[in-house]
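Readers of this paper often ask what the protein records in our data store actually look like. Nothing more is needed to write down the fold, since each code stands for a local backbone conformation. Below, we set out a record of this kind in full and without editing:
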Amino acid sequence: MRNKMKVHGTVNKAGVYAMFITKDNGEKEYLYVGSAIEVNDALSRHIYYLKRGKYAFNNKAILQKYYDLEMLEFEIIKESEMNYKLSEMSSREKETVQKSLSILEKMYIDLFKDTICNKHMKVTKRSSNRNSTTVLKRRKVNLGTKNPNSKYSQDLVEEILWFKENTSLSNYKIAGLVNEQLGYNMHKNYVYNLGLTKWITVSPKNHGILKVEVA
């Protein structure tokens, strides 16, 4: 499943984020406001649920509607001033940053209360008390093309997603083509997770990397 939401800018940082649509007159209509120490984690969760239609029958139904119409957009509207030193902070210090972000989030919720779908929700946050290894692993998974440990190029991932969406080839067959033609050791489960939990912001595209006759 490809991602149908347009993501603006870099999101691997702390801040207040929003989902919105752009109206015919060019103005933004904000539909949801949130905040996070790891905005890319929040983006991953939203895309995971949107791809599966999980918001269709709750207070986020408007997000599902515009996501399905490929009109939903995502951006950070206020970055934390502490981004430059987050990697050096203790868990307690990060909790303080999260509290300040919650205050900013509430301010933006009040600002856009006429259009957002979460205006009545209490601002509560998951604990940021995670060790640095856990944060790093999650960040690498969500960054996709910026993952320094990824041995697969974005072009290859886009092409695999294209094969998944436009052909009847199984995950096993796609992985086999990659391994046979490019010398990798890709597992079929990795192919399955592309677009779902890995490389979630990448869209399908056929670059002609894999040589196969598509029925």
